[in-house]
Each structure stands twice: as C-alpha cells, then as structure tokens.
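**Paired protein data**
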Amino acid sequence: MSGFRAILVFLLMLPLVSCDTPVAPTYARNQEFTLAPGGTANISGTTARVRFDVVVDDFRCPVDVACIQAGDALVRLQFWSNTASGSYDLHTGNLKPGIFENMTIWIADLTPYPISTQPTIVPKDYRVTLLVK
C-alpha cells in the first residue's frame, strides 16, 4: 500500500512542478518590438514566432565619427510557424525586408551603436527592434 501512496503523492504534486521555459510575448503586426539575442516573440493572429539569434557582422559607422556611409550590420533571425520555418539574414544598411509566409519583416533599429573609443560590442548587449507587417 505504501508504494501506491508514493505514486499517488507524486501524481498529485505533478501539476505543482513548473517549467523554467519563459513564455514569449505576443506582438501585433505593425507594432515595433525589441528582442535581445535569444529572445523570441509571437506574432498576434498567426502561429508565427521570431527569434533574434545573433549579429553576424557589425560595420556601422560609430556614432562619434563623421562617415560618408552609415555602414551596415547583418542580423540573423529565425522564424517558424505550424507550417514553415526559416533563417533570415537581414541588413541594417539596405533596409530590405525579409518575407516569411504572408508577413514582411523589417529591422527598425539595432542598438547599441558602435563608438570609436569603445571596444567591440559584446554580443549579448545587442538589441534588435523589428517591425512585422
């Protein structure tokens, strides 16, 4: 009978065990949102999710320097839904959007901006602001 009680106690306590997986926030289309590396967002009204993976390259002009061109950064994003998935490399310099299913994705901003007197930006410090239409 004691084995039965141990199983019963285990089964009764099972719902009390929480998962450490955070719930991703949901954003409406046409609403800008910001993600840290590894951050994920749901797109309202769809089964689509987006994750900011990494800044692959950052050759933007430092904010304290007068450059002829603004430069460019390459940002890797992952998208997936119930029916598709894909990896996208978007540039800050050309503002060309990515297309996933029936959505268009733009990089609205990437921070922090380089500073000529500061060392290279630590990857975990990046934040990308996206706009999904």
The two ends are 60 Å apart (CA to CA). The chain has one helix and nine strands.
